[in-house]
Design a protein that fits this description.
With about 70 residues, the protein is an alpha+beta fold. The chain has three helices and three strands. It has a three-stranded antiparallel sheet with strand order 1-3-2. A hairpin with a 6-residue loop joins strand 2 and strand 3. The chain is globular.
């Protein structure tokens, strides 16, 4: 399940949920709105701001923990 994830670092949203327009398969296939609703509900990890106003990402470790929790 998490085999394609790097060991450490950060992931952008399209790497997590996928992007059909760019041909990217996500590791946690939910819609963008469902992902952000899950963040608001405390179900999914909060993003980290990488410095720019539109630069957000998630820690790989947090996404791996989420995937293990769902398994």
């Amino acid at each position: 399940m998490g085999a394609s994830l790097p060991t450490t670092g950060y992931l952008r949203l399209h790497s997590i949920i996928g992007d059909t327009k760019k041909g990217i398969t996500g590791v946690f296939p939910v819609s963008r709105s469902a992902w952000y609703q899950g963040i608001r509900d405390g179900k999914y990890p909060k993003p980290i701001n990488l410095g720019g106003s539109r630069s957000t990402a998630w820690k790989v470790e947090d996404i791996k923990a989420l995937l293990e929790q769902q398994a």
